Amino acid sequence: MEHLLIAGPILLTLYYIYRRWTGISVADIPGPKADSFLLGSQVESFQSQAGETDFKWQAQFGDVVRVKGVLGTDRLLVSDPKALHHIFTSGYNISKTGFRREITRLLTGPGLGWANGEDHLRQRKINSPAFGMAETRSYIPVYLAYANKLSAEWKERLGGDISTVVDAPHYFTRFFLDVIGEVAFDYQFGATNNSNDRVAEVLSSVVPKFTTPTTFDILVLGLLELVPVPLLKAFTQYAPTKGLRNSRQVERVATALAKRLVEEKAEALMAGKSKRDIMSLLVKANASANPRSNLSADELYAQMQTIMQAGHETTATTMSWTMLELTQHPEVQAKLREEIQATERAIYERGDTEFTAADFDSMTYTIAVMKETFRFHPVAFNTLREATRDELLPLSKPIVTLSGKTITELPIPKNQVLVISIVGYNRNTDVFGKDAHQFNPERWLDGTVKPAANVGMYGNLMTFGSGHRGCIGWRFAVYEYQAFLIELVKNFEFSMDPTIVSKVRREAGIVMFPTIEGEVKKGPQLPITIRAVEQL
Ligand code: HEM
Ligand SMILES: *[C@@H]1O[C@H](CO)[C@@H](O)[C@H](O)[C@H]1NC(C)=O
Ligand SMILES: *[C@@H]1O[C@H](CO)[C@@H](O)[C@H](O)[C@H]1NC(C)=O
Ligand SMILES: *[C@@H]1O[C@H](CO)[C@@H](O)[C@H](O)[C@H]1NC(C)=O
Ligand SMILES: *[C@@H]1O[C@H](CO)[C@@H](O)[C@H](O)[C@H]1NC(C)=O
């Protein structure tokens, strides 16, 4: 026993010396000093508002920063464009971490967000056709119908009054839930009718539950990250904790509905009466795949929860952040409204009544506002990756290491955890201009944005991730967002009580959502003042 006690640390030290000797150690990369050996810098990192430590450390140390994890481990916080490009084009050699994937499996089952390697490739292939440009555009009338329903509800709230206050997240959560129900599953959750669908309630309760973790949570999460995945799996399968019991229950409820929907859609397909919702397209793609590349039943059921968890609060919350920016930039609002009204006039003049995909694509200022919101408020503010072999990360700018060496490429060891700072990259001044920390849609129109970095799914932004497992629903998000933005700005002017503006927090939950200082426990909240706009 004593021998072990002595041998352990010696072996560990030798191992570290070996790693350093072979050049594969990130210990020489500058970064913030840890608060403690046990917790590293994780408490500050997790308990600050979303992006706060990213911005601070980026300013202090640059675009690759060594941040201390629990028990003396090293994590690299990455926002360097070249390094990101390498990470997201390295296939599964740098993959989603086992821990993150396990969390995803708990929330969604064995779906697209969980799968890795060959399984992911296979699942992604079956999923892709349902998320194409033509499919996404065909849903525009549904987005517009719900946007319309929301503005009718707000007009009713206004009654005869000049202005009223609405809590933005409360509305967007319900409306975006019904949109995704209809478009993805051809299923009516009825959230905008205030009917209490059990499945809707259960499914939409998951994401908001993940809020800023306590110090104890941070320690447990950090330690679990170090546990081998098979052990983790056994733990999550059987452990009787409350959170896990809840997620197993969510899984049961969602799977039951998914099963029913898949059966209905398979029957419709057989009868030649297939619809165009995402689930129908999945069932169709699966049916025509060969047995080696089709989905198992569990994988197909898991897509329902995957789409719900990935595609609902993300878009809804992005819309709330847009409202905040519009209240703070009346000139942006006015210019936006002008473009919307001009487009609307053109639509009437040609004898149409509805915006089409071509209209959406022609609205350059609206698109600039959308991109700027995606850039400034990336609701998925970071993600994790792990090297599965030693890797060499190219760098956009040289790093001066602690020992004084200047390096232009950074060797990282196998198993190195990378924290991809989506929020940090989106504020990179080399890509987005000197005023990257300001909200300014003009940067998209005056040539400020340098599309050289070659990362991201849309607009050179990291908002939707990047590469072969970047957001599969980004087109969906873009058109849905635009439909709501157009409809709301057309009908309302937005402002906000200045005493509340200074109290808005970027809460670092599983997505970044707005809360009000002193009322964080109330959850997502953003009181916006609306006034009716005179119509054409
Ligand atoms: C503003 C809205 C959205 C944002 C900011 C967003 C962001 C992201 C990001 C950053 C990733 C990559 C995660 C990683 O690399 O670890 C991702 C993946 C994903 N997103 Fe989105 N998303 C949005 C909307 C949607 C919508 C509307 C859908 C579906 C209808 C969707 C479905 C997915 C799926 C299935 C994945 C996993 C893809 C894979 O692993 O292959 N997302 N999203
Ligand atoms: C992944 O690693 C393998 C072997 O280690 C290598 O042959 C392959 O080129 C790498 N893939 C990518 C996309 O870099
Ligand atoms: C919601 O209300 C609308 C109109 O009031 C109605 O047409 C629709 O069928 C309702 N949907 C559900 C799911 O109750
Ligand atoms: C394809 O579907 C069949 C029937 O559901 C299943 O037995 C098989 O395992 C599936 N293939 C894959 C690769 O999951
Ligand atoms: C997926 O497709 C295969 C045939 O390729 C089929 O046997 C299987 O039942 C399908 N899975 C589901 C869940 O419908």
Automatic annotation (TrEMBL):
Heme binds at residue 471. It is found in: Membrane. This is Cytochrome P450. Its cofactor is heme. It comes from the Eukaryota. It holds the Pfam family p450. Keywords: Heme, Iron, Membrane, Metal-binding, Monooxygenase, Oxidoreductase, Transmembrane, Transmembrane helix. InterPro entries: Cyt_P450, Cyt_P450_CS, Cyt_P450_E_grp-I, Cyt_P450_sf, Cytochrome_P450_monoxygenase. One of its GO terms (molecular function) is oxidoreductase activity, acting on paired donors, with incorporation or reduction of molecular oxygen. Gene3D superfamilies: Cytochrome P450 (1.10.630.10). It comes from Mycena alexandri. Its main location: membrane. GO terms for cellular component: membrane. Pathway: Secondary metabolite biosynthesis; terpenoid biosynthesis.
